[in-house]
Design a protein that fits this description.
Layout lengths: L4 E3 L3 H14 L7 E5 L2 H12 L8 E5 L1 E3 L9 H9 L8 E2 L8 H8 L7 E4 L25 E4 L10 E4 L1 H5 L3 E6 L5 H8 L14 E5 L1 H4 L4 E3 L2 H9 L3
Parallel strand pairs: 1-10, 1-11, 2-3, 2-6, 3-5, 6-9, 9-10
Antiparallel strand pairs: 4-8, 7-8
Length: 238
Amino acid sequence: MTLELTLVEDVPGAYATVVAAAVAARQPGDPLRLACSGGTTGRALADRLAATAVEWAQLEVYFVDERWVSPDSPDANEAQVRQALGAKVGALAGFHPMRCADGAAAYEAVLAPAMPLDLVQLGVGPDGHTASLFPGSAALEAPAGRLVVENEDPSGRNRLRRCTLTYGAIAASRLVVVTLTGADKRPVLEQLAAGADLPAARLRPGRLVWLVDPAAAGDLAAHPASTEELVELGRGIR
């Protein structure tokens, strides 16, 4: 897998620029369909997006994955995004949390009419997982046509059972942005660049952007992106 890295000083700020530009380019009544991830980076992205001028009524939020916990649990991606966006949740064109207790099929029924998603934001864990697609897990071989499946980490490092988008759902999306920040993400990024067969290496969407900061990129080759390029990236989602 050849990684084409896009280098920015401020990943959350760059991501918010892409989303805001994409929302601004939408026609009235045709909201941008965005799927969010959780984790430390996901929360930082949501916080920055909340502080950005966005036409919220032109944005519809879905989720990439979720832990099998109550919606108000600190471990829930839904809770993170709700806390970050605050009252703006009510202004969105739609807010569609993933509830594992309802089953994967229930969220698939919510997601199917929105396909293809316009923008999917992913992170990468130290083990190379993305979404909740863990090394050696059953979800890596989800049946063709499935959009959402239940999954768990066979290593036990990620202890909570999950629901997650499948590779198929992610691949159908118009733009996937993978975000990595900090020196602690450099080892896994170097493994991916070297061709390691990790879950994040199996992403095959139509357009894939690896958005990284200098600490994560290290000595890896990366293209420095201007604000204008980020705006054009968002505007180009079709």
